Amino acid sequence: YWKSHLDLQRDIGTRWLKAEVTDRWAYLDLCSFIAGTKAPRVLNAGSGPIVPKGLSCDGEAVPVVSVDGLAHLYWRLYDNLDLVPPQLPVQCDFEEITACFTQDYFHLIHVRNALDHAFDAPEAILQLVRALRPGGTLLLHHARNEADSMNGVGMHRWSFDVDESLGSLRCILKFRGGEWSIDLEKVLRGLASVSVGLHTRQELNVTDVDRPKFVFVTIVRH
Question: What is the pTM of this model?
Answer without folding.
Answer: 0.93
